[in-house]
Amino acid sequence: MNVSVIDNPYLIPFDDTYILYDARDPISFISAYFSLLPVGVLVFYLSWFITTREMEACIIAGGQVANEIFNNIIKNIIKQPRPYSFGETFQNGTMRSGYGMPSAHSQFMGFFFVYTSLRFALRWKGLNQVKRMAGIITMGTLAFMVCFSRVYLKYHTLEQVLVGFSIGLVSGSSYFFIVGILREIGILEWVLQLGICKMLYMKDSCNLAPITLKEEYEMYLARVEPIANKSKSDVKDKTKMNKNQ
């Protein structure tokens, strides 16, 4: 039996992409887009893995998912409501907690900011100091804008955002160093030897010797140059034969 949308009480919006904002306020409109940034980050992780098969993409994505679960657990322990503007029924009856402390978006961005910043500072050896600082400042700016959007759109109080971001910083930095230890003792290398990882051509070159876009382009030129030279040589030979005939 078909049930219409109006008659189905279980139909709810997908909250990860459902953002309420004031249509009269340009800042509110821009904030709605920044609130969607965590979704974009997760899509980036997936795209990164599909195109490069780098293990690091799975590691960061796994950490972010664990961080999200941790946030939901904390919310259900503290049970602090969101700002009153969303009422007491916000997200009730869904898989996600309707509570506001701590902010999930802010905790996500705190994790993202500190993990990527530590990679800029400690892992990416080929970057000079200016590029390192530019990367860290960019990550910090994005994190700030997401946190700002959650307060401006009244999804969270300032306190909920600050606590969420702080927890994200702690969990992100702890996760970074745990991953570093697992690398040092060879656990991640052992994982890469599993059949599923070999079947997917997974690797950890991003950690050991990341290839820059410039290096990749130079490798491409080195690969196509012999082909181009051979084609030119074949054309010259054909031209010479035609003249001799």
From TrEMBL:
| GO CC entries | endoplasmic reticulum membrane
State the InterPro entries in the record. Answer: Dolichyldiphosphatase_PAP2, PAP2/HPO, PAP2/HPO_sf
What PANTHER family has UniProt attached to this entry? DOLICHYLDIPHOSPHATASE 1, PALMITOYL-PROTEIN THIOESTERASE/DOLICHYLDIPHOSPHATASE 1
Membrane topology reported for the UniProt record: Multi-pass membrane protein
This entry's Enzyme Commission designation comes to 3.6.1.43
- Record-level Gene Ontology MF annotations: dolichyldiphosphatase activity
Principal localization reads: endoplasmic reticulum
Q: Where in or outside the cell?
A: Endoplasmic reticulum membrane; Membrane
**Its job:** Required for efficient N-glycosylation. Necessary for maintaining optimal levels of dolichol-linked oligosaccharides. Hydrolyzes dolichyl pyrophosphate at a very high rate and dolichyl monophosphate at a much lower rate. Does not act on phosphatidate.
Question: Which family, according to UniProt?
Answer: Belongs to the dolichyldiphosphatase family.
Annotated Gene3D superfamilies: Phosphatidic acid phosphatase type 2/haloperoxidase
Residues spanning the membrane: 27-46, 104-122, 134-155, 161-182
Q: What is this protein called?
A: Dolichyldiphosphatase
The pathway noted for it is: Protein modification; protein glycosylation
Query: Catalysed reaction(s)?
Result: a di-trans,poly-cis-dolichyl diphosphate + H2O = a di-trans,poly-cis-dolichyl phosphate + phosphate + H(+)
Q: What are the BP-aspect GO terms?
A: lipid biosynthetic process; protein N-linked glycosylation
Which intervals hold domain Phosphatidic acid phosphatase type 2/haloperoxidase?
57-176
Q: What class of enzyme is it?
A: hydrolase
Alphabetically ordered keywords of this record = Endoplasmic reticulum, Hydrolase, Membrane, Transmembrane, Transmembrane helix
